[in-house]
């Protein structure tokens, strides 16, 4: 009797422990049931557009019955992607920002050469896809952005009309010499124009640093790569730094003719700089089409927004257009099941072909895409900064393409050299050294494993 | 002679320890071992690791920024350990003396601990940058400003916490010892150095251990206050490890290797520190 009671207790005990453990395991595991239709799971990098993406996903799900899940990677996209990709129900598609990023993820990227998405690319952007070792496209760009020196037309007109100005029209402002003259004169007469400086602050805070250690930094690389007739989509192995001296012209100008003294730039943020421009405290502001949302509906009206190419004094720069940057690519996870990959490819094809999604992408999100399916006028983005780029292209100006750099570390190194130079602690030769020595060593560390 | 209850416990304990043990194994031991394993591999996600041997360790030790972060962190830890402990002891000493409103002050001093490091970091960034703006510079002008900014922040945050431990220690110093010393004609300075501090050594061990390890492990305050700027020169070890992970393609394992080195260094230093202060502990 006692014995059976004991056994009973023991059994009960084991059951309760087992139940506890099962509950625990159950929480971390996942049940995987692959349906025949496949599924789509998009890990989206742009948190600000998340709700719009979710709506698009729901619509696709309603039309096709394929379940769509869209999650945002938030501030720490890299970390989220790493943990999500290790899961059983991993994202079936994700976003890449360039070749350095794809270097880590090549083994997760499916060949997209046969997909509708890739075939929908305009011919001039086919080469902009990132490729794997065998030359197959694995990351397809979906947004093309341009940048340059955004200017306030009303303030500049005030300058042209002043008795003390020596440049009298925007058409004369087509090289670095003219830009320097205009900026210097505005700086000298800033109280007459009611501004705090010609250029908004060149913030070196993390939020704004990319404008200089990535966007401005590409010009010397581009001109060197072009002079050597090399590919603009590959990371060059090494650089001579022949064109770095021209960047000094522009950087000096940003520092001297600014709303703030150089000692203050280390703490100046993107918000500071955008606010100075959008409230009319500065005439010039280096940034791109994406900043339109931050500067619109304030004291500078849309019709007063113009963009100048980033003139640095490079020979024949009168023909130069705006800088073009592609930092948004779609990648399909090659480790997802075949059904999931098929479903994802279908979703991507739908995104660039369906009427509704094209409308949403171009009008609600305001993205300029590299797809020929967006060519008709109803899918043109209404953004004056985008319109400015179209004008330059129509006038046959030559765009400057952003050349990928070897690593984030290289950007960090350049940022620190630029800041030291600005604060008077470092020389320009150390900036040039980052282009030559650090470029080569970073390339080695990242690519010659 | 065991009671029925005792017998039952002896027989059944393994079963009831099991859930906790499994969680401990899953949530602590497994990640630790996997983390160590990953430091010898090249990986993008934790499930596709490829063994590369000691390459990550070589790269970690060749990184000048890692070494800079190490010295920066060491200096920071030394400065904050000394400052926080002396000030916390002083404040605790003050508040155990008869003083009006001591309880309210204790709570006030403890309060910074209840605010998260990231929020503290941003609040102090606003305050310090507001002051520095008079000279047209900010915290990120050079690493020196960032360093002292973080020292101020950490003192402000931790003094209250250490104070509570010191108060408990002070209240445990037997009154009869102090009275006897006073009767024998010891000055208050002598009482402090010859009786109170030696009797307080257990609290000092605990507090210095906490400040040393907190100093080494500091991450969120560093991230919020300076984020390593300018150009990673105010970057401490934990932030450096975090940034290494994403700094270059293929450097995930190097970050992992740095984390293992970091673990060993902090463990060794904490053990040494513990030995030194424990040896000074006395019995009443």
UniProtKB/TrEMBL annotation, chain A:
According to UniProt, the name of this protein is ABC transporter substrate-binding protein
Q: Where is the signal peptide?
A: 1-33
- The reply on keyword Lipoprotein is yes
> What is the native source organism of this protein?
Bifidobacterium fermentum
What InterPro entries does its record include?
Bact_solute-bd_prot1, SBP
Keyword annotations for this protein, in alphabetical order, are:
Cell membrane, Lipoprotein, Membrane, Palmitate, Signal
Q: Which PROSITE patterns match?
A: PROKAR_LIPOPROTEIN (PS51257)
SUPFAM superfamilies noted in UniProt: Periplasmic binding protein-like II
TrEMBL record, chain B:
**Which SUPFAM superfamilies does this entry report, sorted A to Z?**
MetI-like
Might you report a single GO cellular component term? plasma membrane
Origin superkingdom: Bacteria
Against Pfam families, the record matches this protein to:
BPD_transp_1 (PF00528)
**Which Gene Ontology terms describe the biological processes this protein takes part in?**
transmembrane transport
**What topology does it adopt in the membrane?**
Multi-pass membrane protein
UniProt organism field: Bifidobacterium fermentum
Q: What is its main location?
A: membrane
Q: What is this protein called?
A: Sugar ABC transporter permease
* Alphabetized UniProt keyword annotations: Cell membrane, Membrane, Transmembrane, Transmembrane helix, Transport
Q: Which residues form the ABC transmembrane type-1 domain?
A: 70-273
What InterPro entries does its record include?
ABC_transporter_permease, MetI-like, MetI-like_sf
**Hey, which family's this protein in?**
Belongs to the binding-protein-dependent transport system permease family.
**Highest classification ranks of the organism:** Bacteria, Bacillati, Actinomycetota, Actinomycetes, Bifidobacteriales
Keyword Membrane present in the record's keywords: the answer is: yes
CDD domains for the chain:
TM_PBP2
Cell compartments where the protein resides: Cell membrane
Q: Where are the transmembrane segments?
A: 12-33, 69-95, 107-127, 147-170, 191-212, 253-272
């Amino acid at each position: 009797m006692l014995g059976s009671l004991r056994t009973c207790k023991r059994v009960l005990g084991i059951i309760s422990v087992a139940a506890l453990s099962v509950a625990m395991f159950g929480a971390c595991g996942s049940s995987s049931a692959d349906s025949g239709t496949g599924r789509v799971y998009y890990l989206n990098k742009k948190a600000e557009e998340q709700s719009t993406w979710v709506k698009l996903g729901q619509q696709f799900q309603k039309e096709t019955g394929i379940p769509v899940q869209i999650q945002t990677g938030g501030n720490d996209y890299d970390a989220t992607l790493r943990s999500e990709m290790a899961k059983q129900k991993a994202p079936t598609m994700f976003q890449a920002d360039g070749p350095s990023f794809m270097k880590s993820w090549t083994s997760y990227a499916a060949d997209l050469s046969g997909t509708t998405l890739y075939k929908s690319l305009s011919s001039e952007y086919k080469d902009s896809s990132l490729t794997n070792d065998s030359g197959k496209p694995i990351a397809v760009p979906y947004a093309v952005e341009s940048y340059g020196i955004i200017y306030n037309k009303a303030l500049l007109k005030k300058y042209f009309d002043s008795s003390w100005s020596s440049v009298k029209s925007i058409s004369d402002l087509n090289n670095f010499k003219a830009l320097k003259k205009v900026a210097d004169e505005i700086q000298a007469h800033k109280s007459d124009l009611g501004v705090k400086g010609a250029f908004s602050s060149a913030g070196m805070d993390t939020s704004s640093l990319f404008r200089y250690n990535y966007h401005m930094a590409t010009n010397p690389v581009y001109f060197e790569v072009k002079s050597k007739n090399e590919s603009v989509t590959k990371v060059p192995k090494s650089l001579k730094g022949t064109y770095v001296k021209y960047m000094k012209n522009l950087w000096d100008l940003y520092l001297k003719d600014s709303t703030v003294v150089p000692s203050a730039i280390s703490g100046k943020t993107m918000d500071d700089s955008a606010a100075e421009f959008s409230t009319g405290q500065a005439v010039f502001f280096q940034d791109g089409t994406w900043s339109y949302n931050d500067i619109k509906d304030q004291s500078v009206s849309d019709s007063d927004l113009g963009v100048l190419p980033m003139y640095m004094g490079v020979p024949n720069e009168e023909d130069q257009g705006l800088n073009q940057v592609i930092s948004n690519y779609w990648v399909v996870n090659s480790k997802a099941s075949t059904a999931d990959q098929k479903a994802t490819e279908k979703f991507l094809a739908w995104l660039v072909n369906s009427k509704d999604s094209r409308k949403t992408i171009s009008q609600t999100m305001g993205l300029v895409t590299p797809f020929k399916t967006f060519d008709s006028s109803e899918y043109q983005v209404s953004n004056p900064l985008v319109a400015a780029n179209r004008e330059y292209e129509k006038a046959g100006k030559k765009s400057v393409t952003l050349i990928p750099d070897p690593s984030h570390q290289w950007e960090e190194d350049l940022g620190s050299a630029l800041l030291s130079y600005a604060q008077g602690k470092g020389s320009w030769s150390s900036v040039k050294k980052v282009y030559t020595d650090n470029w080569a060593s970073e390339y080695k560390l990242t690519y010659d494993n | 002679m065991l009671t029925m209850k005792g017998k039952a416990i002896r027989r059944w304990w393994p079963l009831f320890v099991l859930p906790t043990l499994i969680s401990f194994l899953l949530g602590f031991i497994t990640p630790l071992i996997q983390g160590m394993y990953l430091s010898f591999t090249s990986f993008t996600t934790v499930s596709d690791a490829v063994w590369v041997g000691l390459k990550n360790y070589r790269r970690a030790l060749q990184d000048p920024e890692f070494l800079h972060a190490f010295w920066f962190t060491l200096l920071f830890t030394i400065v904050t350990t000394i400052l926080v402990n002396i000030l916390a002891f002083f404040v605790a000493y003050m508040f155990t003396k008869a003083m009006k409103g001591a309880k309210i002050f204790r709570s006030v001093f403890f309060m910074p601990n209840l605010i998260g490091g990231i929020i503290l970091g941003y609040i102090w960034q606003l305050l310090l940058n507001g002051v520095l703006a008079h000279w047209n510079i900010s915290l990120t002008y050079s690493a020196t400003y960032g360093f002292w900014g973080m020292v101020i922040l950490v003192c402000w945050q931790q003094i209250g916490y250490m104070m509570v431990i010191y108060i408990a220690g002070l209240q445990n110093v037997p009154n009869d010892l102090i009275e006897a010393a006073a009767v024998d004609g010891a000055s208050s300075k002598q009482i402090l150095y010859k009786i109170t501090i030696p009797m307080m050594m257990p609290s000092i061990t605990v507090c210095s251990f906490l400040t040393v390890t907190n100093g080494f492990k500091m991450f969120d305050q560093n991230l919020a206050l300076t984020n390593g700027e300018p150009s990673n020169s105010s970057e401490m070890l934990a932030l450096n490890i975090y940034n290494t992970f994403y700094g270059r393609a293929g450097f995930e394992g190097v970050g992992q290797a740095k984390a293992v080195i970091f673990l060993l260094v902090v463990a060794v230093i904490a053990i040494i520190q513990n030995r030194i202060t424990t040896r000074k502990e006395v019995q009443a």
